Amino acid sequence: MTDEDVRRLARAAGLAETWTDASGVPQQVSLGSLHRILDALGLPAATPSDIEDSHRRLAPQGGLPPMVTMQAGARLTLPRHGAARGLITYEDGGSASLRFSIRADRLVGPVIDRVGYHLLEIADHRVTIAVAPKRCVTIEERAQGKKLWGVAAQIYGLRRAGDGGIGDATAVRELAVAAAGHGADAVALSPVHSLFAADPGRYGPYSPSSRLFFNPLFADPEIVFGPERVAAHRGETVAFDRAALIDWQPAAAAKLVLLRKLFDDFEAHDAANATDLSIAFDDFVREGGDLLQGHALFEALHGKWLGSEPAKGYWRDWPDAFRKGLTSDDAEMASFLSSESRTLRFHLFLQWLAARSFEAAQAAAVGASMKIGLISDLAIGMDRAGSHAWSRQGDLLLGLGIGAPPDEFNRQGQDWGLSGFSPQALLSTGFEPFLSTVRAAMRHAGGVRIDHIMGLQRLWLVPEGAPPSEGAYLSYPLDDLLRLLALESHRHGAVVIGEDLGTVPRGFRRRLSDAGIAGMDVLWFERNRGSFRTPSRWRRDAVSMTTTHDLPTVAGWWRGADIEVRGELGLAGPNEPEERQRDRRRLWRAFTTANVAEGSAPAPEDPAPVVDAALAFVASSPAPLMLAPLEDLLGLAEQPNLPGTIDQHPNWRRRLEPPAAKLFDGPAVAGRAAAITARRV
Question: What predicted TM-score, i.e. pTM, was given to this entire model?
């Protein structure tokens, strides 16, 4: 067995042996790294026999895949098979006989131009044919000749009376209505994914337990039960309501106590009497199917074992009977299901409340004449200790973590502690895990932002326990995933935005543009040899914005607050203050050239004119949608998250003033909104 044998297997598995670093220098993945990654993929390469067996597992098995994707107007093409005829049943109920010709190793059929999921029966095979439109629903199509703008909000940071100290879907609804009154057409949200109900101290929104379900802490039970019924069970939460920072553990505990009381009341008065509410709940549970039941079971089990002595918060540490996910047929699991059926039902109830809450928020946004409404945020992966990893273990690459290769900012690379889909599992299940995830993101929204969208083509995967530098890129079926995104985009009427920041594969942005997916242009990165690029040179197929949740606000950047905080934590470079001063001059020069500011640059201690200019500058871009973060509309210096920190900085905890319904009442915010609207013509 030679090194080339191992590398040949790696290539067959979709692993890239080489990669190009941030400086443009080619790098080669070590043989040791390839061995570890192949092992994690279930493709051992320790011996010639291992390699032979692994190649066999990668080889086509002779049948047809469960799903084939294609673009409408193209010819249906399948892997070669003995049959030359098939019957297709279209999604709308019609059917037709299809004839195939053999060309090389393919079966080539007729042109199909009917968009949808159709069933092909050929010989003894049943194949879903997913026929996609050429492009996703685009922002331009929704805009109808108008250049749109919207706000970007961290849900938890919004305020409303009686929210218990955590922003929720009703605060989102109030924000949407207020923003629409000032000309906004979208509200881009932080992720609403389910985290860990039994462990609210794990509140990072981009490390979800499951992307298929909601964080129940964002639910507003008044949407379902009305204010009077909720008030009868509400405890004392004034201290949480007024706090500047969320204290997640006690605030979450208090809200869950309220939700449990409402559940008990619901069971006694609605479920017992088969009211309209209980019928709606039963319909929701039935439609959620096994996926929803699996999530509820995980939440119940996680609460049980986290409360044991010693605590077992990771499902891999649970007793064997409970580690197998939904496939467990052990008597202990059956006993748990029987004895804890009410706990499972409570977690189903939480998901119902959250779904109804966000449904109402999107309806209010559209009702306020927003052309898009809510834009959800789809995280790149899932926590390996979470619900999806436990209940759908075959979907994921549990021995590999998603991250990033070394670059000029992270010399050792990054491991985000997240697990991603297995490409083989996607293909063998007819892309069911991906489709379920996309549908969940689009269900109660007018758009979705896909975090690290480069993951549709490749992910940097790191073997568990290895440093991030020992990872490698694994390829994904990009063509299939883009077609399915386009199909689901049209079925849900949702626009798609891709976070295409960082190291982007050559030609990838063009692929996104062709698929109708908008990229992201961020002020801090729109440079040309150090100078800030004039807005007219920004992309016409990207969403423009001043900043993101991981980057400094405009006021914080101008003041140098981000450098100061990172300096206190030992994360700042030695020459950053001097470079920032040069950048201030460059930015103000760009503002005056674009006629959004005049005169001399204000002092670092006076960022308000810079915030005004920055929002107007970005609004002047040709982008079909401009997003203004609430932190910038309010002129705040603190950013929601400081990458590279955990407890050293109050990440994901800051709350905004004033309440969501009144955020646009202040003259500064109203003036900035008016200036943006004036430039989106």
Answer: 0.97
